[in-house]
Amino acid sequence: MAAPSPAPPRPLGDDADVARRTRFDPTPRDDAGYARSRRFLRSAFGTWSDETASAFGPDCFEELIHYKWGYLDRHLTCWRAADLEEILLELFPAKVVVEADELDNVIEEAKAFISFLADTGLLDPSSDDPDALCSHLEGISGRFRARMAERSRYSSGKRFWLAAAAAGVDLENDKAVAAYVKQFNARPDAERASVLGEASTAVPRPRAGGRVTPRGTRPLPARSGRRRPR
Q1: What's the confidence (pLDDT) of residue 205?
Q2: What is the pLDDT of residues 188-210, one digit of tens each?
Q3: All residues at 6 or more sequence positions from 159 whose CB lies less than 8 Å from its CB, including other chains
Q4: Separation in Å, CA 102 to CA 21, 108, 144, 191
Q5: Which of 15, 70, 73, 76 has CB 3.0 to 4.6 Å from 210, enough for a Cys bridge?
Q6: How far is CA 40 from the centre of its chain?
C-alpha cells in the first residue's frame, strides 16, 4: 500500500502556528522575550476568538499587556482587580488616546482578554477570580470614562499628539509630523507650555528595566479610531 501523501507545508510565519511552536513565558525578562510572549498570546487569542465567535481580535489586549509588563509586575497572565485599575484608571488616561465612542469597547476588550485567559487555562492561579474581574471591569467603567476626559491626567506626550491632531496634522505622514514638530519647537516657551502643561505627578512611572513609553512617542493607529502608543 502506498504511503499517504504528506500534507502540504504551512507558510512560514503563520500566526496560527506560533502557539504550537513557542514555549510560552508569562514573565519575560527582556524585550525579546516580551515580543515572543506577545506573539504567543496573539496567536492563542486568535484561535480562541475563532472558536468562540468573539467579536474581538488579538489587537484588543495590546495596551493591557504593554503596560502590565512595562509598568507593573511583568506577569502577562496574572491579573488582579488592582492591576486593571492601575492600567485603566491611571495609565490609560495619561497616555492613550481613545475616541469617545470607543471608550465602552475598551472595557469589553479587557473582559474578552480575561475570558480568553480563563477559558484557555492561561490565567495564573494567583489571579483574582475571572468572573469577579469581569464584574470589576463593569464596576469601574464609569470612572474610566470620567478619567479619560480629565485633561489634568494627560501626559505631555498625549497633549502634544492631541494638539497635532487638532491642528489637522496627518499623524501617519512623517513629513507633516516633522514640519509640525519644527513649527511647535519654534514657538515661545509660554505657548509651548500652554499646550504641554505641567507634568502630572499622578502619571505612573515605568519599572526600572521595563518597557517605556517615551514622552512624545507617536501613537499608532488602531481599530476604529483608537490610537495607542508603542
Answers
A1: 52
A2: 888 888 888 865 444 445 554 43
A3: 151, 195, 196, 197
A4: 35, 10, 12, 31
A5: 70
A6: 16
User: Cα(175)–Cα(1) distance, rounded to whole angstroms?
Assistant: 66
Confidence band of 161 (pLDDT split at 50, 70, 90): confident
Q: What is the mean pLDDT of residues 139-161?
A: 93
Is 124:76 a contact under the CB 8 Å cutoff? no
DSSP secondary structure, 144-175, as one string: HHHHHT-GGG--HHHHHHHHHHHTT--TT-HH
- The closest alpha carbon to 25, from 17, 11, 35, 15, belongs to 35
| Residue type at 28 in one-letter notation | P
d(CA 225, CA 179): 23
Instruction: Catalogue the E-assigned strands of the chain.
Output: 220-221, 227-228
Residue with cell 512623517: 174
Q: Is the pLDDT of residue 225 over 50?
A: no
Q: Which of 88, 101, 89, 36 is nearest to 61 (CA)?
A: 88
